Amino acid sequence: MLELFLQPESLIILATLFALEVVLGVDNVVFISVLCERLPVYQRKLARNLGIALAVFARIGLVFSISWVMSLTAPLFTVMNSAFTGRDLIMILGGAFLLAKSLKELWMWLTQDESHTASTVRAGIALVLLQIVAVDAVFSMDSVITAVGMTDEVPLMIAAILASAVVMVLCAEKINDCVTRYPGFKTLALLFLVLLGGLLMAEGFAIHVNKGYVYFAMAFGLIMEGCHILLKRKRKTLINRLYPQQAGWAIKTHAVR
């Protein structure tokens, strides 16, 4: 077992699988962060960690079900000269669910005020975890099929999944804080999930789109939002310097309220 991980070819494959799993993990963490906002504050961290753990177990389960996963690539039926496989159906249905869920969350985020949102009925933790596992299974399908095409060594696949899980746990709280604290980041996160849902459906209909373009666009949006936050802080600091009395009065007024 140890000799497997010491071979140069195995290390290259492991690094590639790890990179794929990290990208998948970021998608999952964003979706988990959005879903966990529907829970009470004291349950969010627990739900986030449980969601990541269940996602990891689901991926490992798919790895051990390689024969079943690969059978999903066999054509099931044909519509207008287009063959559909089990994988295609999972991509279409999973993408439709992610797209509908993301659009619903985006609509509520943009149209409802905070008082109305706070009064809405919160989702149960079991329902949130179920949605996390379902979407993660859809996300994982392509990565597992890709991994099988790269290697038939199950230990390498599991090692990459576990290593990416550590990264997910370390980054989850920071990503969740950004999504919660800054409205722009939450809007970008929801738009990112909308794009992913559309891409999954497109993949199911054999319309192949390079996901690199989507990740580049979202990275550009994150950089713009980061610049916007820095400019707001700079403007606030400048106002405090020019009008220190007004700044102090504003602080006192906020404290009285």
From TrEMBL:
Keywords for the protein's UniProt record, in alphabetical order: Membrane, Transmembrane, Transmembrane helix
Transmembrane regions listed in the UniProt entry: 12-35, 47-70, 76-100, 121-148, 154-172, 184-207, 213-231
Classification via InterPro entries: Integral_membrane_TerC
Primary localisation category: membrane
Location in or out of the cell: Membrane
Protein topology in the membrane: Multi-pass membrane protein
Keyword Ligase found: no
Membrane listed as a keyword: yes
PANTHER family referenced in this protein's UniProt entry, alphabetically: MEMBRANE BOUND PREDICTED REDOX MODULATOR (PTHR30238), SLL1022 PROTEIN (PTHR30238:SF4)
Family, per entry: Belongs to the TerC family.
Protein name listed in UniProt: TerC family protein
